[in-house]
Amino acid sequence: MKKIQMLIGGRWVGGEGDEWLPVHDPSDGTQIAEIINGTDAHVDEAVRAAEAAFESEEWRAWKPHERGNLLIELARHIRENAEHFAELECRDVGKPLTQARADAEAAARYFEFYGGAADKAMGDTIPIEDGLLNATVLEPAGVTAHIVPWNYPLQIIARSVGAAIATGNSVVVKSAEDTPMTAHALTEWFANSGLPAGIFNHVTGLGSGAGAALSAHPNINHVTFTGSVPTGIAVMQAAAKNVVPVTLELGGKSPNIVFADADEEKALDGVVRAIIQNAGQTCSAGSRLLVEERYKEEFLGKLKERFDALEVGRGMDDKDIGPILNKRQFDGIMRRIDEAKKQGKLIAGGEEVKVDGADGGHYIAPTIIDGLDHSCDVAQEEIFGPVLSVFTFRTPQEAIDLANSTDYGLVAGVWTKDIDVAHTLAARIKAGQVFINNYGAGGGIQMPFGGYKKSGIGREKGFIALRNYVQVKNIAVKFGV
Ligand code: NAD
To answer: Which one of 152, 160, 309, 330 has the minimum C-beta count within 10 Å?
Structure first.
């Protein structure tokens, strides 16, 4: 049984006197590790250590390219141990091994990308008048908090921590209580990386304890939170009391919009993958299918064949769909499916799947529901499971209206060969990313990612995310002889 300690100020913290929480493998419910239920005092210690490290001469002396090289070294470490990272993520989150391998590669890409960007984040010189040199300098924000959800811990830590360290900040990560394993594997690497003690800290525990304490800590200079809308609101409220900026990456109810002229094979592949990835437990899951009315019967018939052929199984058995995280999540999804069955028509799935030798796991057959009213809860709210609801439109404008008719705006997919239609939709849909004739573009480390409306505030990924972690200082120099 792995006992996961926290890393605070370069020291491994946690022992007999602490409360320990179990961590389970979603595939069969067996306990795989224990974490410490971090307290307010642990969080305070971590933030103070991060602050001291950030203010140290030692850290100030690190040149941007040296920070970058360290991150690139971490990318190399992840690639060299990709199978280890993938297996940890697979056992911890339950996702099929192939998807966990893709997560390990994405994490390596984040550290590599931000490693390369570390010495390329530059200010401007701005013309004002003769005898005045005006320049902006990008300074690190200071102590940055990173609160991580359970569904993609490895990738999500990499994307924000990579950008924060590249720009010279110190970091306190609060991993998700259900899935701390890869966070810990990264922490082990950071502990021996040669970074000054306290630049990277990892605290564990419940959201209501360690998470809340971190987001409310007055010595934090920026909070990056990825998770659900209600928690995002709580984090923003806590940070607001200290006038601390937040980057919020929240949920979604993303549409895949299929026109009758779409490349059918590509659209079918895209729609299936967008909803089954990580058993639908994905912020950017394509959980609504909007299909042109005259094409619906044909497309839905073929989609049902695809869904019926999908295999469900343990993460390590690497089928198409793995388990749901735990009983609580499972019950929530099944409740939504039961509601949907009463209000609409079940096309595929809709039931629990029993997997041989995995009695403690909770599995759901990939599900398609048709005939719902678009205003009902199932159509409007994030279900966070392998559940796709289907709606139809007759005109591009109807498709736009449907796409925009939820509180979310994270991602949208548009499938058509008509360039006018594709671009009109891309321009009118309120979502942070619009994919035309693809969905997700393989993760797209370089592409800004984030939400309109309740899907969040700010952007991660790409160069733009470096701006989350800097202060822009303007320096004006008057000169003349
Ligand atoms: P969650 O909001 O329950 O928890 C996220 C993190 O916040 C966890 O570490 C948790 O311990 C912590 N937390 C809980 N209560 C807290 C509080 N009061 N103060 C501070 N921290 C607290 O979310 P989850 O169930 O872990 O993740 C699923 C959600 O995350 C879904 O809504 C999903 O769409 C979203 N998500 C978004 C993205 C994105 O990039 N937009 C990516 C992955 C997941």
So the answer is: 309
